Amino acid sequence: MKSSSPAGHRRLALAVALLAIALLAGSATVVAIGPASGPAKPKPAFTVSGGVHNLYPGAQRRAVLRIKNKRPFAIQVRRILVTVTSTNKPGCPRSMVKSPGWAGSVRVPRGKTRVVRVPIRMRAVAPQACQGAVFALRYTGRAVRPRAGHHSGGRP
Fold it and tell me: Which of 68, 73, 137, 143 is the most buried (most CB within 10 A)?
């Protein structure tokens, strides 16, 4: 039984990257902490890494995310979603950090990297318990294989 179809080749796999937001003295930094370990999964079509600095209650910053194409052909990234998966501090809910994600169209040639900027915000009502908290973020995305000669959005 064949594991992929032509339609499966046009739709690329989800990309997952974990990030952490470290809150120190009222500010935060997001750093890449790598993929989660576990059972073997299909190789992602692309990976997302990056971060943001100086996040504190009420602040919004733009995370600079690097999208690396792992496929042997160009891809067109259409969407990056940001999910806060956990926090290490009781009394500091993960809902204190939000992001609308990113939607658009950026072409990433095979083996290359492109950058998108994604807003990430800490709610102004973040409790004192969030001081020094670490929030784990998961990035997922959607990409397609562009039609031949199609170069809309991003760099060719």
Answer: 143
